[in-house]
Amino acid sequence: MKSITAEILAIGDELLLGQTLDTNSHWLSAKLTETGIRVIRRTAVGDNEADILQAFAQAEARADVVLITGGLGPTHDDLTKPCLAKYFNCEIKIHPEALAEITAFFQKRGRELTETNRQQAALPVCCEKITNTIGTAPGMWFQRNGKVFVSMPGVPHEMKKMTEEIVLPKLRTIFNPPVIVHRIIRTAGIGESFLADRIAGWEKQLPAHIRLAYLPGIGEVKLRLTATGTDKDTLHLELEKQTGLLLPLIDEFVYATEDEPLEKVIGKMLRDKNLTLAIAESCTGGYISHLITSVPGSSDYFVGAMIPYAYEVKMRQLGVKPETLEKYGAVSEPTITEMASIVRAKFNAHIGVATSGIAGPGGATPEKPVGLIWIAYSDKYKTVTRKLMLTHDRLLNIKLTATAVLNLIRLNLPR
Amino acid sequence: MKSITAEILAIGDELLLGQTLDTNSHWLSAKLTETGIRVIRRTAVGDNEADILQAFAQAEARADVVLITGGLGPTHDDLTKPCLAKYFNCEIKIHPEALAEITAFFQKRGRELTETNRQQAALPVCCEKITNTIGTAPGMWFQRNGKVFVSMPGVPHEMKKMTEEIVLPKLRTIFNPPVIVHRIIRTAGIGESFLADRIAGWEKQLPAHIRLAYLPGIGEVKLRLTATGTDKDTLHLELEKQTGLLLPLIDEFVYATEDEPLEKVIGKMLRDKNLTLAIAESCTGGYISHLITSVPGSSDYFVGAMIPYAYEVKMRQLGVKPETLEKYGAVSEPTITEMASIVRAKFNAHIGVATSGIAGPGGATPEKPVGLIWIAYSDKYKTVTRKLMLTHDRLLNIKLTATAVLNLIRLNLPR
Question: Is there a contact between A13 and B213 if contact means CB atoms under 8 Å apart?
Answer without folding.
Answer: yes
